[in-house]
């Protein structure tokens, strides 16, 4: 039963975010979010400093029934609780930091690439990189991939994601062998496959293996914004408060060996065979895009998804304005509608689900 003299509070990991026409509450512990009306967002803000009775009175008791219903729902679904001692439950800190110069990297390659993977591995280790995404646009036989990954066997990497073209050489036993030998692999995506499917391996593994029909033959397939890519978790949410959710602490090497913020961005900071990743990182302007956060980006700043959405600065609506909205986002926060071609994008770009 709701006791109206008490205070209602959301759990510290449940944080409301207001958009132009609706709000969400992000549950950063259960990695999910739910929609709420903006009026409820305003009420929850007032409840941070006032009792429920005071807030109801502030609205001239016009919304008593609705407030009771919503707070009952939030209590039942364990998003909030009642207390007489609200000061004992401070907000969670939204500061973000990470004890490494680089957290994630991308290496692109094609049939003409001549990357020095041993040098790259040593330099990524020096930077403290823990997540690597490798994307190849031309076929890579299993033996070749094994020899590349061997350089990363004793590295500091924790997560490895690989995207490569499907070929008949990649039988289930070859894939199983690869995943077994390199347990850092968390995802393998075979594009240009005969069908969309999840590949079940005959072993216990945390790696997901996906076959997708879509042909990913160049870097321009990146930058899609869609709810399936939202990350309602503490790390992403806190990083998004003042950093760019794609480019912050990222370093990339394109298929020609150029060191960039992202392979799709035009500016190169030198070829990795001629300059170290650390030296490239220290060049003027390399970090300029790291702090472009969603509160500074046109339209995104009014979007309820702004702290769980992954940004893109390579494909933007107005290339003359670095603060313009990602070009491949079809969400309109003012109408709360996804434009119709977002469904098409989803079908074209979504890996099959389990
Ligand atoms: S409008 Fe911006 S924040 Fe909202 S979903 Fe699109 S890219 Fe993400």
Explain what you see:
The structure is a single chain. The protein is an alpha/beta fold. The chain folds into 2 domains: 7-88, Outer Surface Protein A, domain 3 (Alpha-Beta Complex); 104-291. The protein is built from 9 helices and 15 strands. The protein has helices at 38-47, 52-58, 64-76, 117-127, 142-150, 172-181, 234-242, 277-281, 341-349; strands at residues 7-10, 14-18, 23-27, 32-36, 80-83, 104-109, 131-136, 159-165, 185-191, 197-198, 208-211, 250-253, 259-260, 331-332, 337-338. The strands form 4 sheets. The chain has an 8-stranded mixed β-sheet with strand order 10-11-9-8-7-6-12-13. A 3-stranded antiparallel β-sheet has the order 2-3-4. β2 (14-18) and β3 (23-27) form a beta hairpin. It is elongated and about 70 Å long. Mean pLDDT is 93; it is low at 343-354. The structure holds iron/sulfur cluster.
């Amino acid at each position: 039963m709701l006791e109206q003299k008490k205070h209602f509070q959301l759990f510290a990991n449940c944080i409301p975010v207001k958009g132009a026409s609706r709000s969400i509450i992000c549950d950063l512990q259960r990695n999910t979010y739910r929609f709420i009306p903006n009026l409820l967002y305003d009420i929850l803000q007032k409840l941070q400093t006032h009792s429920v009775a005071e807030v109801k009175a502030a609205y001239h008791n016009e919304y008593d029934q609705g407030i009771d219903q919503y707070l009952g729902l939030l209590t039942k679904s364990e998003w909030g609780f009642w207390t007489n001692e609200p000061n004992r439950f401070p907000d969670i800190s939204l500061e973000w930091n990470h004890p490494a110069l680089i957290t994630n990297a991308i290496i692109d390659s094609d049939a003409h690439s001549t990357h020095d993977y041993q040098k790259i591995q040593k330099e990524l280790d020096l930077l403290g990189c823990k997540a690597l995404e490798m994307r190849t646009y031309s076929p890579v036989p299993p033996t070749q991939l094994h020899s590349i990954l061997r350089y990363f066997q004793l590295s500091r990497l924790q997560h490895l994601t690989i995207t490569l073209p499907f070929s008949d050489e990649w039988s289930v036993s070859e894939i199983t062998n690869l995943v077994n030998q390199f347990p850092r692999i968390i995802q393998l995506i075979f594009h240009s496959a005969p069908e969309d499917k999840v590949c079940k391996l005959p072993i216990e593994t945390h790696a997901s293996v996906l076959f997708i029909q879509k042909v990913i033959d160049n870097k321009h397939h990146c930058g899609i914004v869609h709810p399936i890519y939202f990350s309602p978790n503490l790390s992403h949410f806190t990083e998004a408060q003042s950093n760019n959710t794609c480019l912050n602490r990222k370093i990339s090497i394109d298929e020609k060996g150029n060191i960039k913020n992202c392979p799709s961005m035009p500016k190169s900071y030198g070829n990795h065979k001629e300059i170290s990743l650390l030296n490239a990182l220290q060049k003027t302007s390399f970090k300029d895009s790291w702090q472009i956060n969603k509160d500074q980006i046109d339209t995104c700043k009014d979007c309820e998804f702004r702290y769980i959405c992954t940004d893109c600065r390579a494909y933007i609506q107005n290339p003359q304005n670095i603060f313009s909205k990602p070009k491949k986002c079809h969400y309109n926060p003012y109408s709360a509608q996804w434009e119709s071609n977002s469904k098409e994008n989803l079908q074209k770009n979504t890996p099959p689900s389990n």
